[in-house]
Automatic annotation (TrEMBL), chain A:
Subcellular compartments: Cell inner membrane
Taxonomic classification: Bacteria, Pseudomonadati, Pseudomonadota, Gammaproteobacteria, Alteromonadales
Function: Part of a membrane-bound complex that couples electron transfer with translocation of ions across the membrane.
Name of the protein described by the UniProt record: Ion-translocating oxidoreductase complex subunit D
Residue ranges that the Swiss-Prot or TrEMBL entry lists as coiled coil: none
Automatic annotation (TrEMBL), chain B:
GO molecular function annotations of the record: 4 iron, 4 sulfur cluster binding; electron transfer activity; metal ion binding
Protein name: Ion-translocating oxidoreductase complex subunit C
Binding-site residues for [4Fe-4S] cluster 2, renumbered to this chain: C390, C419, C422, C425
Keyword annotations of the record: 4Fe-4S, Cell inner membrane, Cell membrane, Electron transport, Iron, Iron-sulfur, Membrane, Metal-binding, Repeat, Translocase, Transport
Biological processes, Gene Ontology terms: electron transport chain
Spans annotated as Disordered: 468-548
PANTHER family: ION-TRANSLOCATING OXIDOREDUCTASE COMPLEX SUBUNIT C
Function according to Swiss-Prot or TrEMBL: Part of a membrane-bound complex that couples electron transfer with translocation of ions across the membrane.
Subunit comment: The complex is composed of six subunits: RnfA, RnfB, RnfC, RnfD, RnfE and RnfG.
PROSITE patterns: 4FE4S_FER_1 (PS00198), 4FE4S_FER_2 (PS51379)
Family (UniProt): Belongs to the 4Fe4S bacterial-type ferredoxin family. RnfC subfamily.
Length: 352, 548
């Protein structure tokens, strides 16, 4: 009578990669609801397109690499990439945008490097940057928050804009984005930057209707909703505090200093924290374990670096938001960070 | 922290912490409810001759011999050697290779004994006043009793005590952090006094003044029993540590109790500490007080696949099949595993013919739902959960990549050999990567390479030494010839000087004679050629002349 042989340990904590990923996208739900509430149904269509593209791309890559397809689908990592990219781009962007971005993210950024766990760059953010520099107009055409928009788009109206470029009533995206004064409006961060470039003070710029009490109208709540989801992930120990903490600190410290010394020319720290993709980036994007530093100390530095780059690009760079660039730049530094943050192993002179 | 401040903190009862660690389901209640039971005498025993880390002793019995319980079957002779003893009275039926309890399922020499059922023991006497006996004699008694570290490492106890270095504390390890196992727990509950007596003997032998007895806080009954017994042992203080795996690991427990770290590749004694397991202390007391050799130990038999889980006094050499029959094992499925040791660090047995040995603390028979078999390994997503739980502060995922890539320099740089193989990393891995398995393999490869390198180095040295020797011999030979020639010349010169014949003259004369003969021959040949040219007819005569 023979018995099964196995390597120790024989006991496992039952939390699989799939479960980890499931927590990640469950925690995105509050932010997603906020996006729908303020920016319309478009994001749902983008999600659908992204997920289908990701699955098809993943299946194609796996079959080309001669690997079992179900194996890759099961870990849900492509799903998370698709979701992150879909909620990062403007909700009414044309359908081909998300398809190109997701396909690039999965095929080039992930599978060309060897599939899950092997990629150097965050796939969703690399896809985002590809789209941003290739299609800057489409990528910056955020719809107005519905609360100040003249138009109310239904679920199907959104689909019509995404797939044909026009609403059933014949309005195009440019027209939809016009405010009551007939001017096309940019995102809060973009408007603020333009205003500052025109020598306006921050106080004057904030008079525009796209700003709310804390930051951009809508954006502030979207960010708070992502923060909520992020806290759930922290609580569930899906992520550790090091990266989000580092990133928020790295952004807040220079922002606070700048704001203290030049309040009229600087974006307030609260505004920084609750604008653009700050919270989404801190809790869901920068925390992608595959492309982050490995030790906890390394992760803290990694987060700090992202936060600082976000501040630098928002303040002095050519783009209003900068999370995607900051994450990719930090991804490049990971090997160096890892080299210099290796923890002192037991018995090598460290103190307990 | 300075040494005296450190001692002060230890004296104050400070408990430090160690990084990482996990909290797997403990499941100790399955086996720790009833007192330790006696296992009935089996019909046959299998005693491997090597059950400790060190060399096996020379076999001192032959097939057909009658042996008594406690009779040594091997000699302890060599350094690091340790004898094994007959578990009961009976007849030696065979000596030869047999499968032993080892992760690789390898075979080693075993002595098979058919029990006669009388369980007759060899005569033994204890010492009443061991402090009057020489230290070396006490150590020899411990060695002769076959005592090795019963906590799992199996290092000869006498050997560990023989290192005479200053010791701040002797630590008695009753932590037993591995899930399911309760052998030490029950032993502490039932034999706290004997354990402390053994600890006191160990303290005496280590020439230490103070001892610490460590127990995890999930064993309140054992703590109570120890507290009561400790009243008579003022040298020892109790330290209750929080329940966390692997706080019973030697290095981790040292960190918990003293805040010190054993240097990489060093020993606890390097930082003035010595650790012994409670089971070992118990065995030492029995060996010194009663002269009783190590022939049995407490084994936890547990898991949902046994009907009577609990702790048993099992004779060393009892086949696992016997133990399982007694505990009521029922195979649950094709996937059934038999684990020797606990769920974290134990190893699976291919069958039940292997015997219980000195370091066997547990037999775990889990049902499939209890400890689900490992799933297919998925790719690492670098989530870092492994690094968070590593008590040695390593980066398990980096080690894994490097081990798979066979990057041995990288593994060295990431301190592969500081891994204690506790399995915490693999326990939390969401991709179910058998990390420890990869580390073990990499360690074996590195050791092999080091061995090969050492061999190659020796071969190279030998080759070079041979070359050098040949060269030297050649030089010497030439030198000898040169000297001989010189001596000859000198001798000749002396001969000439003293008026004797110069041997050189004789040589010259011989050469002159040879030259003259040659010249005569050439002359004759030239004449013959002329004759041939003038007269062909004289050939025969010339032939005759030539022949002459």
């Amino acid at each position: 009578m023979t018995f099964k042989l196995a390597a120790s340990p024989h006991s496992h904590q039952r939390r699989t990669t799939q479960q980890v990923m499931r927590w990640v996208y469950m925690a995105l739900i509050p932010g997603l609801l906020a996006l729908i509430y303020f920016f319309g149904w478009g994001v749902i269509w983008q999600l659908g397109l992204a997920i289908i593209t990701a699955w098809v791309a993943e299946a194609a890559c796996m079959s080309l690499r001669g690997r079992p397809i179900g194996f890759a689908w099961r870990d849900h990592t492509a799903l998370v990439t698709a979701i992150l990219l879909a909620i990062s781009i403007p909700g009414l962007a044309p359908w081909w945008l998300i398809v190109i971005g997701t396909a690039f993210a999965v095929i080039v950024v992930k599978h060309v490097y060897g599939g899950v766990g092997q990629n150097i760059f965050n796939p969703a953010m690399a896809g985002y940057v590809l789209l941003l520099i290739s299609f800057p107009v489409q990528m910056t055409s955020w719809p107005l928050p519905q609360q100040i928009s003249q138009f109310e788009l239904s679920f199907l109206d959104s689909a019509s804009v995404i797939f044909t470029g026009f609403t059933p009533a014949g309005y195009n995206l440019e027209q939809l984005r016009m405010g009551a004064d007939g001017l096309t409006m940019a995102t809060p961060l973009d408007s603020l930057r333009t205003a500052l470039n025109h020598q306006l003070t921050v106080g004057e710029a904030l008079q525009q209707p796209i700003f709310g009490d804390l930051a951009g109208l809508g954006w502030q709540w979207v960010n708070l909703a992502f923060l909520l989801g992020g806290l759930v992930l922290l609580k569930q120990r899906i992520i550790s505090w090091h990266i989000p903490g580092g990133m928020l600190l790295g952004l807040m410290v220079p922002a606070t200093l700048a704001w203290m010394f030049a309040p009229d020319q600087s974006v307030s720290p609260v505004m920084h924290l609750l604008s653009g993709a700050t919270m989404l980036g801190a809790f869901f994007i920068a925390t992608d374990p595959v492309t982050a530093a490995t030790s906890n100390r390394g992760r803290l530095y990694f987060g700090l670096l992202i936060g600082f780059i976000v501040f630098a690009i928002r303040t002095w760079g050519g783009y209003p938001d900068a999370v995607a660039f900051a994450v990719l730049l930090a991804n490049m530094t990971v090997p160096v960070i890892d080299k210099y943050t290796q923890p002192v192993a037991y018995g090598h002179g460290g103190r307990s | 922290m300075s040494s005296s401040a450190n001692i002060k903190a230890i004296e104050a009862g400070q408990i430090w912490s160690f990084p990482g660690g996990i909290h797997p389901p403990e499941r100790k209640e399955l086996s720790n409810q009833a007192p330790i039971a006696e296992m009935p005498i089996a019909d046959n025993y299998i005693v491997p001759i090597k059950q400790h880390s060190g060399a096996a002793g020379e076999i001192s019995v032959a097939v057909g011999d009658r042996v008594l319980r406690g009779q040594p079957l091997t000699k302890s002779g060599v350094s690091m050697g340790l004898p094994v003893h007959a578990p009961t009275s009976g007849t030696v039926t065979a000596i030869g290779p047999g499968r032993i309890a080892h992760p690789s399922g390898m075979a080693d020499i075993v002595i098979r004994i058919a029990a006669d059922g009388h369980d007759e023991a060899i005569a033994h006497t204890g010492l009443t006043d061991y402090e009057q006996v020489a230290r070396a004699d006490l150590l020899e008694r411990i060695r002769a009793a076959g005592i090795a570290g019963l906590g799992g490492a199996g290092f000869p106890t006498a050997q560990k005590l023989a290192l005479q270095r200053p010791i701040d504390y002797l630590i008695i390890n009753g932590v037993e952090c591995e899930p399911y196992i309760s052998a030490d727990d029950r032993l502490m509950r039932e034999h706290a006094k004997t354990i402390l007596d053994g600890a006191k003997i160990l303290l005496h032998l280590a020439d230490a003044k103070k001892g610490l007895v460590a127990v995890e806080d999930n064993k309140p009954e054992a703590i109570a029993a120890l507290k009561e017994a400790l009243a008579d042992y003022p040298q020892f203080s109790l330290r209750v540590v929080p329940t966390k795996y692997p706080s019973g690991g030697e290095k981790q427990l040292i960190q918990l109790l003293t805040g010190r770290q054993v240097p990489s590749r060093g020993l606890p004694i390097d930082i003035g500490l010595l650790m012994q397991n409670v089971g070992t202390a118990y065995a030492v007391s029995r060996a010194i007080r009663d002269g009783e050799p190590l022939t049995q130990r407490v084994v936890t038999v547990t898991g949902e696949a046994v009907r009577r889980p609990g702790n048993y006094w099992v004779r060393i050499g009892t086949p696992v099949a016997e133990v399982l029959r007694e505990a009521g094992f029922e195979r649950q499925s094709e996937e059934q595993r038999i684990i020797m040791g606990g769920p974290m660090m134990g190893f699976t047995l291919p069958d039940t013919d292997v015997p219980v040995v000195k370091i066997t603390n547990c037999l775990l028979l889990p049902s499939v739902s209890e400890l689900a078999p490992a799933q297919q390994e998925m790719p690492c997503i670098r989530c870092g959960a492994c690094a968070d739980v590593c008590p040695a502060q390593l980066l398990p995922q980096q080690l894994q990549w490097l081990a798979k890539a066979k990057d041995y320099d990288g593994l060295e740089q990431q301190n592969l050999f500081d891994c204690i193989e506790c399995g915490a990393c693999a326990y939390v891995c969401p991709s179910e990567i058998p990390l420890v398995h990869y580390y073990r393999k990499a360690k074996a490869e590195v050791r092999n390479m080091a061995r090969e390198k050492a061999k190659a180095e020796i071969a190279r040295e030998r080759f070079e030494a041979r070359q050098e020797r040949l060269e030297r011999e050649k030089e010497e030979r030439l030198e000898r010839h040169r000297k001989a020639a010189e001596a000859r010349k000198k001798a000749q010169a002396e001969q000439v000087n003293s008026g004797g014949d110069n041997p050189q003259d004789a040589v010259q004369a011989a050469i002159a004679r040879a030259k003259a003969r040659k010249a005569a021959q050439q002359k004759a040949a030239a004449e013959q050629a002329t004759n041939e040219a003038t007269n062909e007819g004289k050939n025969e005569a010339n032939d005759g002349e030539n022949n002459a």
